[in-house]
Write a structure and sequence with these properties.
This protein is of the alpha/beta class and 410 residues long. It has twelve helices and 20 strands. The strands form five sheets. Strands 3-6-2-1-9-11-12-10 form an eight-stranded mixed β-sheet, sandwiched between helices. The chain has a four-stranded antiparallel β-sheet with strand order 13-18-20-19, sandwiched between helices. The protein has a four-stranded antiparallel β-sheet with strand order 15-16-14-17, covered by helices on one side. The structure holds aspartic acid and magnesium ion (MG).
């Protein structure tokens, strides 16, 4: 007998028929002798609809009220799921974020969980009921409803699993696991059986959308094994777990791409100590996160600086980038939004030399120019023209042998 957390995403609860399917699945897990806690997202499209309503009233809605509106999507779904379990002859009780005291900070629309009180969940389970918890939502210390950011039900599930020390956290979704890359642009993508927390964290931050990044951070910190799998079949999905030696052998585990990057190129700033400190210090003050950075010296003590910022922040950033550029003596500030960041991720990069060189070669073979590069211990990212996204992803994916079943030599 185990204590299992199951999370169902929006498409898995996208209709009443699908909610009935979820009810049957949780009951099956309970009948096998497990204690079952279910976390649900809002029905698919519902969060967008609710946020749309808020925006139709006023162009920039107050964040506190947006959360009060958005949280209802999960509230409705949790209660519907509990009813569906009753209808199948089972016992269940819906629980909202504030009822199980998912206490967060007060950063509305992107709140972070501070504590969770598991006692209500345990009492519910002790009663023989399935606990159906509304994902995505919490409550701040003043009792305001908060939400955890888009995709936040993943984080609710993993955080609750950690808080109640569940044996596993199953994330049910509309795909059957984590893939070596996006199958919609690379037909040879394969499902990964097992991946480390670290690799998953990199993949999630580099544009793979299966899990909210924060949920992977929490899973890694509290060592919650996560099983990402399909809500519509029984095939095993992808286990996200602690690294072991078998994972180290895989040089490249996956290829990700991120379209929300824009390139900023500042030409001819003063080349003296403190210039980039000023530049990036001021950008940080505006709360804009910078990713790839290249500085190159030119002649006559001038330097060029190239970096990327989220496209969604570019409009806001432009006026003060021009200003800072001027203050630092720049000749020109240029922007390019037609770029994409493609990345390879793998634990084995730590112990295998020449991975970066190979990646650059695979891109070069396709005639793709690299505009910026950044690396960490287990990832290499290249900024390229957006029109080459598919070509680059396929070249890297198949170049590193990810199209082959494990065990074959690349
Ligand atoms: N319903 C929320 C969203 O659409 C949270 C989630 O589904 O994880 O972002
Ligand atoms: Mg999701």
């Amino acid at each position: 007998m185990a204590l299992i957390v199951q999370k169902y995403g929006g498409t898995s609860v996208g209709s009443i028929e699908r909610i009935r399917n979820v009810a049957r699945r949780c009951l099956a897990a309970q009948r096998e002798g497990n204690d079952v806690v279910v976390i649900v997202s809002a029905m698919s499209g519902e969060t967008n609809r609710l946020l749309g309503l808020a925006h139709s009233v006023t162009p920039i809605p107050d964040a506190r009220e947006m959360d009060a509106i958005a949280a209802t999507g999960e509230q409705v779904c949790a209660a519907l799921t509990a009813l569906a379990i009753h209808n199948e002859g089972g016992r269940a009780r819906s629980l909202l974020g504030h009822q199980i005291k998912v206490v967060t900070d007060d950063a509305f629309t992107k709140a972070r969980i501070k504590t969770i009180d598991g006692s209500k969940i345990f009492a519910t389970l002790k009663n023989g009921e399935i606990a159906v918890v509304a994902g995505f939502q919490g409550v701040d210390r003043d009792g305001n409803i908060t939400t955890l950011g888009r995709g936040g039900s993943d984080t609710s599930a993993v955080a609750i699993a950690a808080a109640i020390k569940a044996d596993a956290c199953e994330i049910y979704t509309d795909v059957d696991g984590v893939y070596t890359t996006d199958p919609t642009i690379c037909p040879s993508a394969r499902k990964i059986d097992k991946i480390s927390f670290e690799e998953m964290l990199e993949l999630a931050s580099l544009g793979a959308k299966v899990l909210q990044i924060r949920s992977v951070e929490i899973a890694m910190k509290y060592e919650v094994p996560v099983h990402v799998r399909s809500a519509f079949s029984d095939v095993p999905g992808t286990w996200v777990t602690n690294e072991d030696s078998s994972l180290e052998e895989v040089v490249v585990a996956g290829v990700a791409y991120e379209k929300n990057d824009a390139r900023v190129h500042i030409v001819g700033i003063d080349d003296r100590p403190g210039v980039v400190a000023d530049l990036f210090g001021q950008i940080a003050e505006k709360n804009i996160s910078v990713d790839m950075i290249i500085q190159s010296a030119t002649t006559e003590s001038r330097a060029n600086v190239t970096f990327t910022v989220p496209k969604t922040d570019l409009a806001r950033a432009k006026p003060f980038l021009e200003e800072i550029g001027k203050a630092l003596g720049a000749r020109e500030v240029r922007y390019d939004e037609d770029v994409v960041k493609v990345s390879i991720v793998g634990l084995g990069m730590r112990s295998h030399a020449g991975v970066a060189a190979k990646a650059f070669r695979f891109l070069a073979n396709e005639g793709i120019n690299i505009q910026a590069i950044s690396t960490s211990e287990i990832k290499i990212s290249c900024l390229i023209a957006a029109k080459y996204t598919e070509l680059a992803v396929r070249a890297l994916h198949d170049g590193f042998g990810l199209h082959r079943a494990k065990g074959c030599t690349p």
